[in-house]
Amino acid sequence: MAVLRPLRYAHYWVWFGLAMTLIVVYLTLEAPSGRISRIPHLDKAYHFGAFLGLTLWFAALVERGGYWAVSIALFLLGIAIEIGQHLMALGRSAELLDVVADTVGIVLGIVLSLLIRDSWLQRVERWLSPT
Questions:
Q1: 70-78 long-range CB contacts below 8 Å, 24 or more apart?
Q2: What pTM did the predictor assign?
Q3: Would you list the domain boundaries of the chain?
Q4: What pLDDT does residue 82 have?
């Protein structure tokens, strides 16, 4: 189980992260792909960016030992989204390349998180409360 970092506003950060996750799920399931863009495969960039952002967010919330849990949870979320797209008849289609884009975003997010000693959220909290 992932252990939360000692953050003063941890409950706010967790709720905000969950809200971002729900927005990603909504956008990937609700918006028909034709409305997003006419550029081929641009949705892969959206998947990559969304999962990179979610990974950076949740990795900032947990201690380094919890990075595996974050990675696995987000990977499973990406698969669940594709299953949901397959089951829904709203102009969306499940694609393996979306899961690949999600996974690349997750891996890059973890690598970037490992490059800094402490959480960027800890830095934000130090900036917000300089005492």
A1: 70/2, 70/110, 71/106, 71/107, 71/110, 74/102, 74/106, 75/102, 75/103, 75/106, 77/21, 77/25, 77/102, 78/47, 78/51, 78/102, 78/103, 78/106
A2: 0.89
A3: 45-131
A4: 93
